[in-house]
């Protein structure tokens, strides 16, 4: 991939986290091209809305940024999360008019302590691993199932090559946004992309 290339990004987020979405768009124009919705789609038809999102926004993007806040988890249920779930499903789907996006999860400050829980010494290998809670209590399943993919290559932990989704803290993303966007973009062509689950159970 050409160094310094700017990617078209779709931002998936809850209304409560709109200030972070706006901050990204306003402050990182030189790092990414925003392909997100600028205003709500005027319809009550859920299928029509998602069709418009796929055709008019997602189909022209290569990376989906998922802002992970306090209300971005699976446990809140389908009605609360249906748009984020469908946006990520459309992002993970690989078709003729809608090629798969890289997925970048940015952990907002309110969620840092819920997700990053320090480290532990592994009983199997004796080395130290980070304890990262990516599950139904912290994110939606479309993200967690593609972050912790089944059958990791290591016997005791997941390594970067075992994950399709990229995860980063907000403060680290701010320091070098293009690095993390590039990481997500590059996953699209990696071997791990063959193991992606679009509709996890």
Strand content: 15-25%
Poorly predicted residue ranges: none
CATH top level is: Alpha Beta
* Number of separate structural domains: 1
Task: Give me the side-by-side strand order of the main sheet.
Answer: 2-1-3-4-7
Secondary-structure element series? EHEHEHEHEEHEHH
**What is the terminal separation in angstroms?**
34 Å
Number of strands: 7
Supply the number of helical segments: 7
Q: Could you describe the largest sheet, including whether it forms a barrel?
A: 5 strands, parallel
- How confident overall, as mean pLDDT? 88
Residue share in helices? 25-40%
The CATH architecture term is 3-Layer(aba) Sandwich
Structural class: alpha/beta
- The radius of gyration computed from the alpha-carbon positions, rounded to a whole number of angstroms, is 16 Å
Task: Compose a concise summary of this entry.
The chain is 32% helix and 18% strand. The longest helix is centred in the middle third of the chain and has 15 residues.
Care to describe what's here?
The radius of gyration is 16 Å and the shape is globular. The strands form two sheets. The protein has a five-stranded parallel β-sheet, sandwiched between helices. It has a two-stranded antiparallel sheet with strand order 5-6. Helix 1 (18-27) links the parallel strand 1 and strand 2. The protein has a single domain (7-195), classed as Rossmann fold. By secondary structure, it is an alpha/beta fold. It has seven helices and seven strands; from the N terminus they run βαβαβαβαββαβαα. It has helices at residues 18-27, 46-56, 78-92, 112-115, 141-147, 170-175, 177-187; strands at residues 7-12, 32-34, 63-68, 102-107, 116-121, 128-132, 166-169.
């Amino acid at each position: 991939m050409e160094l310094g290339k700017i990617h078209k990004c779709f931002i998936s987020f809850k209304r409560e986290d709109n200030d972070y979405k706006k901050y990204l768009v306003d402050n990182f124009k030189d790092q990414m091209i925003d392909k997100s919705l600028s205003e709500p789609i005027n319809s009550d038809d859920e299928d029509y809305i998602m069709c418009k999102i796929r055709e008019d926004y997602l189909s022209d993007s290569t990376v989906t940024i998922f802002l992970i806040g306090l209300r971005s988890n699976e446990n809140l249920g389908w009605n609360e999360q249906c748009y984020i779930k469908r946006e990520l499903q459309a992002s993970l789907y690989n078709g003729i008019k809608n090629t798969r996006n890289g997925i970048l999860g940015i952990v907002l400050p309110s969620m840092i302590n819920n997700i990053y829980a320090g480290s532990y010494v592994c009983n199997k290998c004796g080395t130290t691993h980070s304890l990262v809670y990516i599950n139904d209590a912290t994110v939606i399943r479309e993200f967690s199932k593609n972050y912790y993919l089944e059958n990791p290559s290591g016997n005791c932990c997941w390594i970067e090559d075992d994950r399709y989704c990229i995860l980063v803290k907000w403060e680290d993303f701010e320091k070098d946004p293009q690095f993390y966007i590039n990481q997500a973009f590059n996953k699209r062509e990696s071997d791990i992309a063959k193991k992606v689950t679009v509709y996890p159970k």
